[in-house]
Design a protein that fits this description.
Radius of gyration: 12 Å
Helix content: 10-25%
Strand content: 15-25%
Largest sheet: 2 strands, parallel
Distance between the termini: 30 Å
Shape: flat
Number of helices: 2
Length: 71
């Protein structure tokens, strides 16, 4: 099954992925909820880090797409 992770992995080939959870309560206590669509997406992304968007946290990235603040 090809989901949104497929184009991110194979077509775009980003250095990192920031996963947002639109229309889904994907996090609890700042952690991804098991069984959520966001958790499934993260599991499908291969070969690059996935950083979930978390309310109230601002993430900062360096020029190599490494998260340097807001993990």
């Amino acid at each position: 099954m090809k989901t949104g992770a497929y184009p991110a992995n194979e077509l775009v080939r980003p250095a990192a992925v920031v996963a947002t959870h639109v229309n889904e309560g994907a996090t609890t206590g700042g952690k991804i909820r098991t069984g959520s669509r966001t958790a499934a997406f993260i599991a499908l992304v291969k070969g690059r880090p996935v950083y979930p968007a978390l309310s109230g946290r601002t993430k900062e990235f360096d020029g190599d797409a490494k998260c340097v603040a807001g993990r």
